[in-house]
User: Which sequence fits this backbone?
């Protein structure tokens, strides 16, 4: 995902600059839910629903394998289109 974000950000844009994509992960305590925010820059021809669904599913799968008892709040947002 990081490589795709880097390549999307290196493509010249037309119009106003889009905010960059990124990943923010936080957890206040061991028993608290994970708070994960995924911000994605996508290509214009991609469907936003599929673009946001893929990383969300990958994160959920990873967390389930790592700690099945952990809960999480995952937000996946398209922040820019190139």
Assistant:
């Amino acid at each position: 995902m990081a490589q795709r974000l880097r390549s999307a950000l290196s493509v010249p844009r037309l119009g106003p600059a889009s905010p960059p994509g990124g990943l923010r992960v936080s957890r206040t305590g061991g028993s608290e839910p994970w708070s994960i925010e995924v911000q994605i820059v996508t290509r214009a021809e991609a469907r936003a629903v599929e673009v946001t669904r893929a990383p969300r599913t990958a994160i959920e799968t990873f967390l389930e394998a790592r700690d099945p008892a952990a809960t999480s709040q995952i937000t996946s947002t398209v922040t820019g289109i190139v």
